[in-house]
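Internal tracking record. Fields below are filled automatically when a chain is submitted to the structure queue. Please do not edit lines marked as system-generated. If the sequence contains nonstandard residues, flag them in the REMARKS field before resubmitting.
Queue: standard
Priority: normal
Entity type: single polypeptide chain
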Amino acid sequence: MKIRISQIIRMVLTMVWVFLTVIGWLYPFSVEQVQADDQTPPSTEEFLEPVFPMTTVEPDQELEGQTPLYNVPLALNPHDHFYFARPIAFDSNTAPSRDFGYGFYYPEETEVHTGVDIGSPMYKPVLAAGDGQVVFTGFGLMNGGGDINDPYGLAILIRHSFSYEDKTIYTVYAHLDSSEVEKGQIVKMGEEIGKIGLTGNTSGPHVHFEVRIEDSKGGRVQNPELWMAPPVGSGVLAGSLKSTFGYFLSAQKLWLKSLDTGFKYEITTYAPVKHIYADDYFKENFVIGDIPGGEYEISMIYKNKWFRYNLTIAPGTVNFVSFEGMNGFKTGLTSTTNEEDFLQ
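SYSTEM-GENERATED OUTPUT FOLLOWS
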């Protein structure tokens, strides 16, 4: 019997298809669970505008149980810099939203969040987080020219009367209903400067709070949770998550679970953009604050494998954990990080 070449080709292709189908069934591959690791740096795409949540930020209704905050300034370790109080009165919620933190972004919209959001009822007082001078109040903080469509809405910018190392420090208060201060006015920590509102790109009442620093490198935003004093008995966890090849893992999900209560926090690392900056010392790509002191388990999926690690959160200070690809987690800072690793 004569077999044509075309028949042989069809037979070979059929066998290859069957082989690949069996392999796919035996070794399922989940794209959602695997974080890119290769020798290719993160995307160099820049996002030009900050993004603000278009969903309501719900204020905390259980205020009686709020724990008092540490007094500022607070620095139990040499590189801590808890210089700021919360920009919201203590009779309201003072905790930043967990769903929309610093460095969060919507990939489909290529927008990034440059601060933290603290939900509060309308018209509640917004307070100066530290002593300083008002250098801007009004609309147009981003776009200029008094633009009433500016994404920050009605905003206030304060240059503070203290510095950190050689850095001038500023704070931003956005989405206000009203401003109670004028440009050039001197304000004290805790002084009312405005009211909670809905101006700018937001659909729920809250204050968008930013920390900015300026030095010889220029101006840049910082994660406010490294600058706001935590509640008494609570600490802050910062971390650096990298691939085996030393590149930061951007928009990576991880979880922090209390071994005492079972409560679990979900964390997302910073967006891969140049103008989301890390602290000059910690060089972190995630921060989560207001964590009660105690024993925790941190976990994440990397290369289709679960990694887990137990750590202690010490209150009143910045705790640090690092992840280095297949080497897993460890506490303490990693080796020196170059700016190119995070595209700062």
